[in-house]
């Protein structure tokens, strides 16, 4: 028998259930933000690349735009931050615009493709 002490892992401050509930709320809020040139929300368009939630409920989102020269490039991250900050459990939200990899229509959900008659 090994007498070594077991390695203790620090448990996350968020339970899996809390994280699942927060994830659902994040998706719901992301779906309230629309690209003004396309009548589909940014979540279904596939513009959200990554969402990180810290144990302190700070949210960091990597997102892109349909085109780097998008006329709302300066505004859309703020729209996303405002939407996410409406979730009472979220302490803060920071949105980073990234362009690698570039967005293309293959990132869209089937729901978005249906809304845009792309099937």
Give a short synopsis of this structure.
The protein is α+β, with helices and mostly antiparallel strands. It has one domain: 2-Layer Sandwich (GMP Synthetase, Chain A, domain 3).
Could you characterize the architecture of this molecule?
This protein is α+β, with helices and mostly antiparallel strands. It has one domain (16-109): GMP Synthetase, Chain A, domain 3, CATH 3.30.300.130. Helices cover 29% and strands 15% of the residues. The protein is built from four helices and three strands. The chain has helices at 16-30, 42-45, 76-85, 110-115, and strands at residues 48-53, 58-63, 92-97. A three-stranded mixed beta sheet has the order 1-2-3. Helix 3 links the parallel strand 2 and strand 3 (92-97). The radius of gyration is 18 Å and the shape is globular. The protein starts with 15 loop residues before the first helix and ends with a helix. 21% of the residues are buried. Residues 1-10 have low confidence and may be disordered.
């Amino acid at each position: 028998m090994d007498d070594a002490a077991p390695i203790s892992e620090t448990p996350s401050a968020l339970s899996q259930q809390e994280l699942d509930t927060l994830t659902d709320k994040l998706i719901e809020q992301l779906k309230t933000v629309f690209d003004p040139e396309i009548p589909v929300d940014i979540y279904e368009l596939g513009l959200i690349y990554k969402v990180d939630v810290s144990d302190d409920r700070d949210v960091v989102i990597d997102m892109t735009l349909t085109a780097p020269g998008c006329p709302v490039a300066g505004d859309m991250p703020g729209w996303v931050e405002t939407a996410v900050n409406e979730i009472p459990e979220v302490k803060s939200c920071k949105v980073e615009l990234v362009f690698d990899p570039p967005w293309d229509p293959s990132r869209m959900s089937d729901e978005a493709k249906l809304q845009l008659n792309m099937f």
